Amino acid sequence: MQTSRIQVVGSGLVGALTALYLGKAGYEVDLYERRPDMRRADIAAGRSINLVITDRGLQAVDRVGLKERILDITIPMKGRMLHDVSGETTFVPYGQTDKEVINSVSRGELNCLLMDAVEELSNVTIHFEHKCQSYDIESKTITFTNGKTVTADVVFGADGSFSAVRRSMMDQVHNFNYSQDFLEHGYKELTIPATPDGDFAMGRNYLHIWPRENYMLIALPNLDGSFTCTLFYPYEGEESFENLQTKEDVVGFFERVFPDALAVMPDLVEDFFANPVGSLVTVRCNPWRVGGQVCLLGDASHAIVPFFGQGMNSGFEDCRVLGDLMKKHQTGSSMDWSTLFSEFNDARKENADAIADLALENFVEMRDKTADPLFQLKKKVGFELETRYPDHFIPRYSMVMFHPEIGYAEAQRRSLVQDQLLTRLCSNISSPEEVDWEQADALVKEVLSSPRAQVGV
Ligand SMILES: Cc1cc2nc3c(=O)[nH]c(=O)nc-3n(C[C@H](O)[C@H](O)[C@H](O)COP(=O)(O)OP(=O)(O)OC[C@H]3O[C@@H](n4cnc5c(N)ncnc54)[C@H](O)[C@@H]3O)c2cc1C
After folding, report:
1. Final residue of a structural domain among 328, 363, 398
2. How many domains does the chain have?
3. How far is the CA of 14 from the CAs of 75, 153, 229, in angstroms?
4. Considering only CA atoms, which residue is closest to atom 15 of ligand 1?
5. Is the CB of 164 under 6 A from ligand 1?
6. H or E segment at 322?
7. Which residues pair with 392 in a beta bridge?
8. Are residues 225 and 256 in the same domain?
9. Positive or negative, the Cα torsion across 423, 428, 431, 432?
10. Residue 186: CB within 6 Å of ligand 1?
11. CATH number, domain containing residue 300
12. CA 379, CA 207: separation in Å to the nearest integer?
């Protein structure tokens, strides 16, 4: 099909990157965003203030030449710094090498950088303050809330977890499957400001975690010396947001469970009552596309909880796979969008489902297990197995964060087998030195094939 113009709805992180991939492939692209231009108006970029970009996301932005520009605005974090109730800290590294780091980045700055890059292309136009109301499949028409309409042969819905494009598909496609599951926890963002000298109040290159079994506080560094903290806490119940109503409640709670954090949070009370409690949702749907006409990507098709830091990264990976498939299905100036969307849907859906599950599991790991000695022992033995059998054993966290060549679904399958193996090796021992390496050798060869032989998207 000869494509005249392509319409992308949503100029968030994934929509902007989608427009870049399409623009660089030579298409005329219109990118529609409901908000004003955040580079000119003083508006928040929505949701979390900062987030983690990992190798999957970096691989996707590298394909459009943006990796170095983005790394320039990040802070690498080499592991978790766990804070116990007495303020004692324990460092748990993410990987074994200096390269195995994850990167903290401001959501707003990243989105602005992507939009700047979009506008460097003369064939892509961003239309701000254009909120999509609906998309009519039969007439191929997008209607905006300002009354405007545009006809579109090919539409990408990148309008986030409450997508209007997806809602339109639900209304019009008879076999559209959809589920949305909210966690019983919400989240609230708080701040640890830079010290009066402009320094970081805690170690800079760490993701700080205060794990407290059913809830947790985390902190990610920002370039200005501050940290953005996020409290993940139940909405209701004895220990919950509903029981933090007064200044005394909040300060008392922090004194009791996060005393060392409280000591560096002079604005806690103001922040606490000024900032909303956000919800955490997992969205699954299928199909993600209608013929070669409309396709969802990013949170619009697979919103997940943030505990593996992979929502945006998996959305960026969607863009990378889209780019690969565009090359595959281009014949001269013609593109077979129908086959492309079908392959895209098939390739991404099982991976999206896998990372949704892994993210939910990682919440339990972060808030509860990280402080558990058996968990820390398994981590150490896992690293040792990786050193001894680099072609067979890669820890689950590493597969997700540092190995984009292993799809999420494959990482999920392998990590189940690996965890059973670790459980056997770590039963009745208290240090990696006590591992029975003969048994380990036999088990690894018996149950683990080489992940490097299997490439997933
Ligand atoms: C607390 C928290 C922490 C997180 N941390 C991480 C992390 O560390 N790492 C990570 O990878 N992910 C993280 N995520 C997930 C990440 O935020 C999302 O996966 C990512 O923002 C998805 O990008 P998107 O472009 O698909 O959707 P969005 O970021 O939601 O962008 C959608 C865009 O579409 C626009 N839009 C919406 N509706 C319409 C409409 N009707 N018409 C036109 N425009 C519209 C919106 O204004 C927005 O610009 C986190 C999420 C939360 C809640």
Report:
1. 363
2. 3
3. 21, 20, 24
4. 311
5. yes
6. helix 311-329
7. none
8. yes
9. negative
10. no
11. 3.50.50.60
12. 17
Could you tell me if 120 and 159 lie in one domain? yes
Same domain flag for 385 and 339 = no
Q: Is 311 in the pocket of ligand 1 (CB under 6 A)?
A: yes
Q: Is the CB of 32 under 6 A from ligand 1?
A: yes
| Residue 300 CA, closest ligand 1 atom number | 26
For residue 19, report the distance from its CA to the centre of ligand 1, in Å. 15
Looking at the structure, tell me whether residues 110 and 69 fall in a common domain: yes
397: in domain: yes
Going from the Cα of 298 to the center of ligand 1, the distance in angstroms, rounded, reads: 8
**Burial, 57: exposed, middle or buried (Cβ in 10 Å; 0-12, 13-18, 19+)?**
buried
The reported pTM is: 0.95
Tokens of 290: 């209608």
Pocket lining: 126 vs ligand 1, CB cutoff 6 Å: no
- Ligand 1 centre to CA of 162 (Å) is 10
Cis bond upstream, residue 93 (ω within 30): no
Question: DSSP letter string over 149-176?
Answer: EEE-SEEEE---TT-HHHHHHHHH-TT-
| CA angle at 428 for the pair 422 and 433, rounded to the nearest 5° | 70
Distance 439 CA to ligand 1 centre (A): 46
| 253, containing H or E segment | helix 247-257
Supply the residue whose CA is at minimum distance from atom 37 of ligand 1. 159
| Ligand 1 nearest-atom number relative to CA 57 | 11
The finding on whether 160 has its CB within 6 A of some atom of ligand 1 is yes
Q: Are residues 109 and 224 in the same domain?
A: no
Q: Give nearest CA residue, ligand 1 atom 38.
A: 159
In this structure, the answer to whether residues 156 and 208 fall within a common structural domain is no
Whether residue 67 is found in the same domain as residue 167: yes
Q: Is 221 in the pocket of ligand 1 (CB under 6 A)?
A: no
Q: Are residues 42 and 174 in the same domain?
A: yes
Q: pLDDT truncated to tens, each residue of the chain (457 aa)?
A: 666 789 999 999 999 999 999 999 999 999 999 999 998 877 665 556 899 999 999 999 999 999 999 999 999 999 999 999 999 999 989 888 888 999 999 999 999 999 999 999 999 999 999 999 999 999 999 999 999 999 989 999 999 999 999 999 999 999 999 999 999 999 999 999 999 999 999 999 999 999 998 999 999 999 999 999 999 999 999 999 999 999 999 999 999 999 999 999 999 999 999 999 999 999 999 999 999 999 999 999 999 999 999 999 999 999 999 999 999 999 888 999 999 999 999 999 999 999 999 999 998 877 777 667 888 899 899 999 999 998 889 999 999 999 999 999 999 999 999 999 999 999 889 998 999 899 888 888 888 765 554 433 3
Tell me the residue range of the domain where 336 lies: 5-77+103-180+281-363
Where does a domain end: 248, 279, 310?
279
Decide: 379 in ligand 1 pocket, CB within 6 A: no
Centre of ligand 1 from the C-alpha of residue 47, in Å: 7
